[in-house]
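Task card 7
Instruction: Convert sequence to structure tokens.
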Amino acid sequence: MFAQTSSISRPKFGSFLRSDPYINNNNEVEDDEQFSIRDSSASATSTYDDDNRLSIESSPWNQSAAASPWNQSAAASPWNQSAAASPWNQPWTQPYTSPFHKSPWSKFAAVTPLNDSDDCNHGLIGSLVREDGNIYSLAAVNDLLYTGSDSKNIRVWKNQKEYTGFKSNSGLVKAIVIAGEKIFTGHQDGKIRVWKISAKNPRLHKRIGTLPKLKHIVKGSMNPSNYVEVRRHKNTIWIKHFDAISCLSLNEDQTLLYSGSWDKTLKVWRVSDFKCLESINAHNDAVNSVVAGFDGMVFTGSADGTVKVWRRELQGKRTKHFFVQTLLKQECAVTALAVNSASSVVYCGSSNGIVHYWEREKQLTESGTLKGHKQAVLCLATAGNLVFSGSADKTICMWVRENGIHMCLSILNGHNGPVKCLTVGKDPDATAKDKRQWIVYSGSLDKSVKVWRVSEQPSELQNLQSQNQKTQLKEEQQQQMYGALSPSADSVHSSQCSFSSPSNHARY
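Output:
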């Protein structure tokens, strides 16, 4: 057990880049509890206020064309069109806009992304729309797809048609994970709810519990040592989250459930009896993402700009998690994490639009960055050798990793709002020849779920691009041996999708 402090961390520049900027503030909360709509700052007492947001007009990154040397008129610069003409400046543009892609000191290994017409291996095959809320969470199992939204509903889809649904009484659904017959949903009211499909009626889902369980709360409240200070003059027992649940993850054998919260803590739950085994004061700001990975390791990402590693160890019959290392420390918020357990690779998405990744040989070391987005990365997913990143810029970048090199296979376009969540499953229609074919589900704040069929098999054009990328990366590494060359303006704007090794990654 860890003691909770009442101090409030001083906001950094990165804390103003919200990981959830589009939350509807009109949601009702049960039991008359008032939960603040949270930005990346972890203030326990402040509520969401439009006056406190960074307005687009006041942001130094969003000045008029006349005021900013980077945004000239269309006549003066072919790279900076007017807001009406530019596809990157649509009504969804928010303080997520990243200034880093405009830096003249960023030199990338260029990759030209493919359009849908360039390759039939990647394409949109369906769209699921029900006008009852923005989509915040997804989970797929067998032939069922679960979607969570800010309408408090969990919809179940089968064969791209609505199959059934169930509703929680309170709290938008921010996370969904499935362990066998149990469905766990994390909510903005700080509770985790557990559901199970009825044995008599497969369309009926029954709620079988809420974490923490009432009996555990009553038992824990009898011991004064179980209380921790969560804010000034307010204490609660350590097994409860006192702010929104932002993320959920299961370990490999699905015996443990991890929950991250805006209350800065990571909690560990036993799936069999729903008991809270451990609470960790993991970060100095909201925990935005948690993922259980390989070798008993758990990774957490936070609005404080850090990615931390925790290792599970057995102490007799008890399980305890110990801090291992900090993989990343930056000014901007960490918004998403994903792990490829087969390749022992960890991916991290940030509010500046960059994806960092670490590969493990003897230990985890940063191996490079993926730069394909103009705005914040909001979600990540992996499948086979593929990595998917969804962004506030409404696009999904699809990368393939081969021999330690990442290549951008395609940019999936189709959403009219930020892409908030992703999940990937095997393509049931794939033949033995197309074993590396996948179905990708993407949920958005445009209230829709898109269904995509993708393949790991690159086309001839993509193979050519891969060779060009490897050649350019080799040339850049050779240049460093004899002195770095100043990047040209063409190298900055030559591509929307790029790979960068840590040796040539510009520091800001």
